[in-house]
Write a structure and sequence with these properties.
Quinone Oxidoreductase, Chain A, domain 1, 2 domains, seven-stranded mixed beta sheet, 17 strands, globular, Alcohol dehydrogenase, GroES-like_sf, oxidoreductase activity
């Protein structure tokens, strides 16, 4: 099969399109013919070695955790899916080695769910990691309908899905973003506010009685700002500030979860969750996809088509 691979920690320049052996399919797994693979910042951060202290990596690595595709084969004693089923998932395994930037990937069934029927493969591949992150962040701070939540970096891949999920859950959403993304946030159902100096004061103008929860999807001091605004200090969660727990906030590490993926698919099929695919590039242009991701200027998602 064709796959993207790297043999040591490095930058996007180290990525190669290679011929790799077809993966073996074990019990509790299915072989997925990849139609699209989602690109996330963690992909290039992992390749740079930033996560080496906590994640087991075995070289050479085929990167990627997000996938949408079709079941090609099933492993022994695996009855959850049949050949031909359309699936999507967050295929994070016990160690990093055989990822989704390939024509074929093996996936434990616990990492998959039926693909949303109303979305393309490219759109579906943009959901798993970002959508699960947003949904699990909202659940971590125990949101309830009618509450007000601030989502920091609301126009990005995770933030834009988080806005839609929060709106679907009945929340009032205030989203931080650059001025050029404010109309986009309004279209998703959020009240936009400009990030940068004075952010806390601008949020107070919109919510003078305080906010109920805060989600930090960018870092850069957002945890402290959100903690100054929430009614209960422990209702702040971050995926970007690695000192969040020491500051009294929640540090979230997203987990594969079939039921959560199924919930997101239901939202998508009911028209309450869609994916803005900003860039859809062929597999061979994975390095370009990483450069676009690292620029931090992409609205929505980047995916690789296979």
């Amino acid at each position: 099969m064709k796959a993207i691979s790297y043999s040591a920690y490095g930058t996007a320049a180290a990525l190669e399109l290679v011929d790799a052996p077809d993966p073996k399919v074990g019990p509790g797994e299915v072989l997925v013919r990849v139609k699209a693979a989602g690109v996330n910042p963690v992909d290039w951060k992992l390749a740079a070695g930033y996560l080496d202290p906590i994640l087991e990596v075995r070289f050479p690595v085929i990167p990627g955790w997000d996938v949408a595709g079709v079941v090609e084969a099933v492993g022994p004693d695996t009855f959850d899916y049949a050949v031909g089923d359309e699936v999507y998932g967050y295929v994070r395994k016990e160690w990093t080695e055989l990822g989704t930037y390939a024509e074929l990937v093996t996936a434990p069934v616990r990492t998959l769910a039926p693909k949303p029927r109303e979305l393309t493969f490219e759109q579906a591949a943009g959901i798993p990691l970002a959508g699960l992150t947003a949904y699990q962040s909202l659940r971590r701070v125990n949101v309830e309908a009618g509450e007000t939540v601030v989502i920091h970096s609301a126009a990005g891949g995770t933030g834009s899905l988080g806005v839609q999920i929060a709106v679907a859950l009945g929340l009032r959403v205030i989203g931080t973003a650059g001025a050029h993304n404010h109309d986009y946030l309004r279209s998703l159902g959020a009240e936009p506010v400009l990030y940068g100096d004075g952010l806390a004061d601008r949020i107070r103008e919109l919510a003078p009685e305080g906010i109920d929860a805060g989600l930090d999807f960018h870092g850069d001091g957002a945890v402290e700002v959100l903690q100054s605004l929430v009614k209960e200090r422990d209702r702040v969660v971050s995926i970007a500030d690695y000192e969040a727990a020491a500051k009294g906030a929640h540090q979230l590490w997203v987990r594969p979860d079939t039921s959560d993926l199924t919930f997101l698919a239901v939202l998508a099929d009911s028209g309450r969750l869609t994916v803005n695919v900003e860039h859809a590039l062929p597999l061979a242009e994975a390095a370009k996809a990483w450069e676009l991701s690292a620029s931090g200027r992409t609205r929505g998602k980047i995916v690789l088509t296979v």
